[in-house]
């Protein structure tokens, strides 16, 4: 554990005391978002110390020119950057002639931040001792509305404690912002208009190249000791900034509240010409509801989310705080309302990694959203890829594939690849398999075949075609081999016959063939359409079968395990526990060649295959592979501990499962990787959820039945979660004595607990009594 | 062949007719240099069309900030850039109010360029029809003096043909130059002073970061119809430029000659405070010798070079022109006078690839310089690496090696690595072996053991330590393996057990052990010193022996060949002749992953080993490997055809040998790779020389004897070359009837022709009569 300043609390993230060196980390941890926009927990008032300013609008990106060491054919021309958007929260506060700035004032006491996850708001309070002798108390509360997702609200309260204070306030919008992450220091935004109307300010700007038009707006109101007060504004317009300036004398112990509403209106949702008009409407809505009304709706909206998504853990506050933080951040990032959005690895909390969509979505996020929202949300995530199919086909063409073969991008914003390291972009192709697997997973979980029959089958055909073209026949091995790939373990590059990738490819081919058979039989019209649209030939199907049946899998007879890749056993097989801690993490201590020739595994690779295809192997096989590979695994990816936690739980290695769980659930809160200041690891948070539900809870869908095999770490008293399964809400409560399972809604589903099929709700309650 | 505008000529490179689209290519092809400085054949007068301006000072470089896609541990922080230096040749010519500019004038006729390789000068002449009606003839001649290597000279003659011309001339130095190749558009130079004295101009500037101080100077004189004429100068100084401006009315058919001397004086050779003073001295020397005197010395100096280095070919003008072009450019680039210099891949003809030193020097250039200059030159090249040993040890340390293991950089200017693609920088480690091989090669050729005993042995120890640490023991194979390397065939990355690298490593270990034994016995003091200095332990030697004896080499029993790497036979083994030409060159048509998983070979890899270690294998083995690998070779490196030409000649495949010879010798003249505008391929030019001397001539040093096994392509009538071997000048003349070999100087050497040892000079002459 690398930091521990977050105060354990079941429902809130709390920081007490002001420490300048924590500012950037806390800006990440206390981030807020509502799926449509989000922002780091930057201070409203000026802060002259180190800070990472960030406010983001979902789906608004910039195609930054790439930067490469040496250009390789096929590299994409741009890398889509998450875009810092104009700042609407800013308040420059001057009191008796001194700018309020926690970095330069004399002293800060009683500093406290709280991110209230139950209700969805961020608060901050402190007393600042200014250099001019004034003592002032500030309390702010801020949230981005879930119910009105273009509206954010701030209540900022100033109380001078020891004398009257002459306030000079500038409430501004600043569109002259920059990105921390740019390749060439490009300017990303162009300001189109700077306007105001009474206490309302508007800046319309557009992103360069992508031409997303956005109106950033805010309005500013005042209360004195709870009474609405009108203050006259003077306006200051600059090229990229508008400030509404106010003066007011605050009597000692009087409280001036500044109520600020603001946010973004973009042409992703509205006509370009209407943006300012819609922004005004938003201000009207906010004025009608007022801060308290909006907040009330916020609390209700979050309550509805928690009703379904909450996981309780008793007896372990840190574990409870961890899982709620993960669930909260996932919901802040993506709510599944907009099928053109996806789940970026840093959500709205930072810029690193750019792009919005990785294979994380299919491998980690879909199970979470599928179980905690209605099916539509997961389906939207599947349609997202369907809509990108044409671009995936173009992407494959750039790499020399033909005839409709599709390679989905490693990183994308609009379907085009935007990453460029050859070993990832061109070779980490297992991502294609995860996209097919998600279709299977969705269909298995929801029993909804409509996506597959209407759209998914096209995706599967494109992917199958890719695999068939990507392998080649080795006369030496008399098998099909797949050369030059990078597996999920990115600490190996350009390897041959990565078992996981080969296995996924074989499975994709077989699954696609099966689904084609099924669709031909059960949805003959769809079949006819898709064959016509994709120009599918009988010969192709034969070839897919041939490849699937003759795929090569590296296997060691001696060790009795599938090998991660050809030649894995040639490595110097020293396990991780024999590495001095001074050499860890290896990705910071070792040069890349040393990492590559070592046996160390960044994240589950062979074991990712065992996780996806659990049913294909016996528990003994799983155990053998887990025991062989886990000791070489350094877990230097945020996506690693969760899968290992799930597998360890399945193998009754509860201590390991618990350790991995803590690591995944508090990865950011405790800053294991020394990088939380760059933003949070949003997508791996879904893995944390899985490590409880699939790991400890043992939830699986098999033969159209929902199975549970609940276990509980000895450190906990009890835990509970709910999943939405085919319109039933299944609640699982586990303690050391009596696991309880109850169902609401559709009772027409099969639930199997500890291997025993339950026959009624009543029986379920105490089904797995030990 | 991709261009053919160069007129075949035995001694000159000639271009006739002005074509704007050839300007940049010709700027490369007509480059001049004298080992200390060099420049592209840019026009003296203004040219507003596309041009690539370049003038370079040997050893003066800039450590440009690197550019990477994704930073990897161990990457160097900079990439040394070849540095465009201030322009001293510039002449702005205005005639009757119109600027002379071949891009904008009405018509250009009788345009001719000649690079006279015999005498070492560049000339250009043309008649320009200006838009104002003036017809003017211009003749310029330019050279960089070999005998006074800080002095360049230009004679620029203007003759108005149809009317009197009012000339406004500005003879300038421009230090406000930029590089074509910069990563971040940095400014590389800072101007320190801009001065003049009478008709002399001086700009002192220094390079940023590296702080190379340089005085760029020139002086301008005039003759009218051959009579010296003084013209008054007016001076115009700008921040980075100085112009001396002259006016003169040239009568119709009168000729004004502008004589300009200029060049660079740098603190690499002089004290920083003396630069301007030395520049003035250079002008005095030039004034004393005058243009004709300097030119006379130039002709003599080149005559002396050709006396030793010339290769004659009769019956094939293009082949003759090709080989002389190669020999000429090599001598323009490096003359072996300065042990801190080396041979950059583009010499003084362009900026691409940066750095100055690649393994090309050891593998290709040393044999050329060894045979055509005295031993001192090759020895200087060896000492260059000796001086960088400490930095090679640091470089290895950065990658996790210890105890004095040395990894020489892939690209360097001062011993530090400055390339950063992980697959090259960290993994193309065979370069280390080439550096050891050059020590062996030098010692074998010269019989001079002094370098090895006094210095080279330390280099060998550092390299041996590297190999011992770089391998690991595979319990699976019960052998030492080398994982994660890139061989000379850079179309394979991060491969295991590259046969060439493993073989070189084994050889380095054994050779180092042998030399240590020899030095212990014959140079006991040196032995004591080196053991003390390197802390060499007996155990290390044992371990080197163990590794060498147990190195793994991939071999196919079925094919009877060593495999380029593990798994090579898993590839889809389609030979190059079956590739459609539309797919070639694959490095421009295919994405990197497709190249990597293909069997196609960029340049000799296994065959490079067979070339280096010819004696270790039978001719039958060579033939088997040549026949297996050559058909997969795309020769997309300039270094590929020469090695194949040599091996083909050895195998009596004379047609192939000849084809490869033509391709290597006219690579730039005929622009095979469509890139001559970027500069010439200097280092591969040494390979061209080898393909005649070692290929057709069959020259080898074996058992302290000089062997020849001369062959001649059917296209040629005869060819001849000379080599300097242990103070004897051996001249080889070969025709279809009667190969002749003669010796001058030390006759105390053994010469073996066609396997028969020759006993006297007389016998040698007709020794190998067929």
TrEMBL record, chains A, B:
Record GO biological process: carbohydrate metabolic process
UniProt similarity note: Belongs to the glycosyl hydrolase 65 family.
Name this protein carries in UniProt: Family 65 glycosyl hydrolase
Pfam families reported for this sequence: Glyco_hydro_65C (PF03633), Glyco_hydro_65m (PF03632), Glyco_hydro_65N (PF03636)
Keyword line: Hydrolase
GO molecular function: carbohydrate binding; glycosyltransferase activity; hydrolase activity, hydrolyzing O-glycosyl compounds
Lineage top rank: taxon: Bacteria
Coiled-coil region(s): none
Domain (Glycoside hydrolase family 65 central catalytic) ranges: 324-690
Keyword Hydrolase: yes
Domain Glycoside hydrolase family 65 N-terminal: 14-268
Active-site residues annotated for this sequence: 490
Xref: InterPro entries: 6-hairpin_glycosidase_sf, 6hp_glycosidase-like_sf, Gal_mutarotase_sf_dom, GH65_N, Glyco_hydro_65_C, Glyco_hydro_65_M, Glyco_hydro_65_N, Malt_Pase/Glycosyl_Hdrlase
Residues annotated as domain Glycoside hydrolase family 65 C-terminal: 699-757
Positions with a binding annotation for substrate: 359-360, 602-603
Keyword Coiled coil listed: no
SUPFAM superfamilies assigned: Galactose mutarotase-like, Six-hairpin glycosidases
């Amino acid at each position: 554990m690398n930091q521990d300043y977050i105060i354990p609390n079941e429902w809130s993230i709390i920081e007490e005391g002001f420490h300048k060196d924590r500012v950037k980390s806390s800006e990440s941890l206390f981030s807020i978002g509502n799926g449509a926009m989000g922002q780091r927990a930057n201070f409203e008032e000026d802060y002259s110390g180190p800070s990472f300013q960030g406010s983001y609008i979902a789906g608004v990106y910039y195609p930054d020119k790439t930067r490469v060491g040496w250009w390789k054919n096929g590299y994409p021309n741009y890398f889509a950057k998450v875009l810092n958007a104009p700042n609407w929260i800013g308040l420059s506060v001057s009191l008796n002639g001194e700018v309020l700035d926690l970095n330069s004032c004399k002293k800060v006491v009683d500093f406290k931040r709280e991110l209230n996850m139950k209700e969805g708001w961020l608060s901050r309070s402190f007393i600042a001792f200014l250099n001019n002798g004034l003592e002032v108390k500030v309390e702010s509360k801020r949230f981005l509305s879930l119910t009105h997702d273009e509206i954010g609200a701030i209540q900022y309260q100033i109380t001078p404690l020891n004398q009257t204070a002459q306030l000079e306030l500038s409430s501004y919008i600043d569109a002259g912002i920059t990105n921390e992450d740019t390749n060439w220091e490009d300017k990303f935004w162009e300001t189109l208009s700077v306007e105001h109307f009474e206490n309302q300010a508007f800046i319309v700007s557009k992103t360069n190249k992508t031409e997303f038009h956005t109106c950033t707006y805010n309005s500013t109101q005042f209360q004195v000791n709870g009474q609405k007060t009108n203050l006259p504004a003077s306006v200051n317009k600059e090229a990229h900034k508008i400030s509404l300036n106010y003066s007011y004398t605050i009597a000692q112990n009087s409280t001036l509240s500044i109520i600020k509403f603001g946010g973004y209106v973009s042409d992703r949702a509205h006509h370009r010409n209407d943006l300012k008009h819609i922004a005004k409407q938003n201000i009207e809505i906010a004025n009608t509801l007022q801060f308290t009304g909006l907040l009330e709706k916020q609390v209700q909206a979050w309550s509805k989310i928690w009703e379904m998504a909450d996981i309780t853990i008793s007896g372990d506050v840190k574990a409870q705080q961890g899982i709620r933080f993960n669930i909260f951040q996932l919901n802040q990032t993506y709510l599944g309302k907009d099928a053109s959005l996806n789940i970026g690895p840093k959500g709205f909390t930072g810029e690193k990694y750019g792009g919005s969509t990785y294979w994380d979505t299919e491998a980690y996020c879909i199970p979470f959203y599928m179980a905690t929202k209605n099916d539509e949300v997961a389906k939207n995530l599947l349609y997202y890829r369907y809509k990108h199919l044409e671009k995936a086909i173009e992407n494959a063409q750039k790499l020399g594939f033909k005839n409709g073969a599709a390679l989905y991008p490693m990183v994308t914003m609009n379907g085009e690849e935007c990453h460029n390291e050859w070993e990832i972009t061109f070779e980490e192709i297992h991502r294609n398999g995860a996209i097919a697997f998600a279709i299977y997973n969705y269909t298995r979980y929801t029993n909804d075949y409509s996506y597959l029959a209407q759209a998914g089958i096209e995706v599967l055909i494109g992917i199958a075609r890719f695999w068939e073209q990507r392998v080649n026949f080795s006369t030496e091995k008399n098998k099909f081999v797949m050369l030059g790939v990078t597996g999920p373990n990115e600490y190996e590059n350009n390897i041959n016959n990565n078992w996981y990738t080969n296995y996924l490819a074989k499975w994709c081919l077989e699954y696609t063939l099966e689904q084609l058979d099924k669709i031909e039989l059960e949805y003959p019209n769809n079949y006819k359409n898709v064959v016509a649209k994709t120009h599918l030939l009988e010969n192709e199907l034969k070839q897919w079968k041939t490849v699937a049946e003759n795929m090569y899998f590296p296997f060691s007879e001696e060790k009795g395990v599938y090998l991660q890749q050809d030649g894995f056993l040639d490595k110097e097989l020293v396990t991780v526990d024999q590495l001095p801690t001074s050499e860890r993490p290896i990705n910071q201590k070792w040069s890349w060649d040393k990492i590559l020739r070592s046996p160390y595994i960044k994240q589950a690779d062979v074991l990712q295959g065992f996780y996806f295809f659990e049913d294909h192997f016996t528990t003994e096989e799983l155990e053998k592979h887990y025991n062989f590979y886990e000791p070489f695994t350094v877990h230097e990816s945020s996506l690693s501990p969760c899968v290992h936690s799930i597998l360890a739980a399945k193998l009754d290695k509860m201590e390991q499962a618990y350790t991995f769980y803590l690591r995944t659930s508090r990865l950011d809160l405790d800053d294991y990787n020394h990088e939380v200041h760059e933003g949070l690891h949003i997508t791996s948070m879904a893995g944390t959820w899985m490590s409880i539900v699939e790991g400890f809870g043992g939830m699986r869908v098999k033969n159209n039945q929902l199975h549970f095999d609940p276990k509980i770490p000895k450190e906990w008293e009890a835990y509970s979660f709910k999943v939405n399964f085919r319109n039933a809400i299944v609640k699982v409560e586990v303690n050391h004595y009596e696991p309880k399972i109850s169902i609401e809604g559709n009772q027409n589903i099969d639930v199997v607990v500890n291997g025993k099929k339950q026959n009624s709700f009543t029986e379920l309650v105490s089904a797995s009594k030990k």
